[in-house]
Amino acid sequence: MQPENPAPYSAPAPFAAARPPVAVPGKPAPREPEHTTPLGAFETSVPDGEPTVGSALLDELREQIAKFVIPPSPEALDAVTLWVAATHLQPAWQHAPRLAVVGPAKRCGKSRLLDVLTETVHDPMLTINTTPAAIFRSIKEEDPPTLLVDEADTIFGTPKQAEKNEEMRGLLNAGHQRNRYVTRVVGNDHTPHRFATFAMAAIAGIGDLPDTVMDRAVVIRMRRRAEGEKVKPFRSRRDIPALHDLRGRIAAWARPLVDEAANLEPEMPVEDRAADTWEPLVIVADLAGGCWPRLVRVACARMVAAEAAAEEDHPSGARILADIRRVFVAQREVDSLSTEELLHHLRQDPESPWAEWGRGGLTARELGRMLREFDITSGNVRMADRTQRKGYMRHKFLDAWRRYCPTVHPVGADPAHSEG
User: Do 240 and 275 have their domain in common?
Assistant: First the structure.
């Protein structure tokens, strides 16, 4: 019979590679992460331990999340799972990691993931149309809620919106660390009063959040589902009772571990603010045991490295993808186009914004910045005159086209070959 709680924490020993995705009968084959940072010397090795009640609960939670959304990688799914469990141990943490659920366009599963989080995190507090003053007045220092912010692009999407919502950004930044208060006067006698800000928060939106928020977050870059990728529709009457039952069992497992969690200082594969942000997830994994100490360190190292390598500039959305596809179609589906040719054709479209983009029209540098958000980069391409120039290969766009600007296929057509 398994004990109710795992054995006391001990420092992990050096570990092996990440687990491969597991095939599930009757479902599309799981995909490997498309851009995975190789394991390096900065990642320690942790051997898998025996399964425990805690590891079984995390396994079940990961399975439940995967029913409703398709995260961009197995590591991202592991991170979301551990973040949810960490909300049930908030009194133990020095830092409250944000979960930034972002995507380059609509219908990437951001809101659906927040639906699942709402039913599994500790004391969820939805902040739709909620003022910062109401939020910090709702935060209990000894037992903070979990903040859930959807459609963050309507709060921070433009400089004007960001300026108008500067207090919300300040709240999200301050609440990342314990003992960061805001002082407000209250009552008729205007007595100064300190309000706590410390609380874990999940923030979803189109495009990146402000840099100061992203820097304090575990970043989940959602993608639109491709054809053939299926998820279970979320139905409140059917699905919420099971999620609430799981939430209750996770809370019952976590509550006795608060003091132990508060005293742990695990070995981390990253440093500085990234270590502060990921530490609660690593501690939860170490307390749970099983394969989770290994999985969390792989997820941490790879996801932090990916964010460090990401460009700060934001793309213009799926419009650039659709316009580039029209260029390739007009050029009879050539294998490649030089950057110069592609920019020429984009600027020639009278209905597109690219001729007037910036001061002198869309540039090669700006085009590269937009496409990197979709994991598309330029390279050397061979021209008809057998010379080589910088350009783009058509096949690099196929996955992004399927996800962000799908076509309507004729009846009887095979969509699997429509972009071939």
Answer: yes
**Rg value, the chain, Cα:** 23
Q: Are residues 153 and 209 in the same domain?
A: yes
Alpha-carbon gap, residue 239 to 233, rounded angstroms: 9
CA angle 246, 251, 253 (to 5 degrees): 95
HEC secondary structure over 22-85: CCCCCCCCCCCCCCCCCCCCCCCCCCCCCCCHHHHHHHHHHHHHHHHCCCCCHHHHHHHHHHHH
401 and 299, same domain (yes or no)? no
Q: Looking at the predicted structure, is the pLDDT value of residue 194 above 90?
A: no
Q: Which residue has the higher pLDDT, 353 or 315?
A: 353
Mean of the per-residue pLDDT values of the chain: 82
Q: Are 323 and 303 members of one domain? A: no
Which pTM does this prediction carry? 0.69
The verdict on residue 294 lying in a domain is: yes
Residue 397's pLDDT is 93
Which of 281, 309, 337 is where one domain is finished? 309
Does residue 297 sit in the same domain as residue 365? no
pLDDT at residue 315 is higher than 50: no
**Starting from the edge strand earliest in sequence, which strands make up the sheet with 379-382, in order?**
336-338, 388-393, 379-382
Residue range 58-62: average pLDDT? 98
Q: What is the pLDDT of residues 7-47, one digit of tens each?
A: 433 333 333 333 444 343 443 343 333 333 444 444 446 68
Residue 396: domain span = 319-417
Q: Which of 283, 309, 335 is the last residue of a domain?
A: 309
Give yes or no: residues 160 and 104 share one domain: yes
The two tokens of residue 394 are 């058509």
Three-state secondary structure call for residue 251:
helix
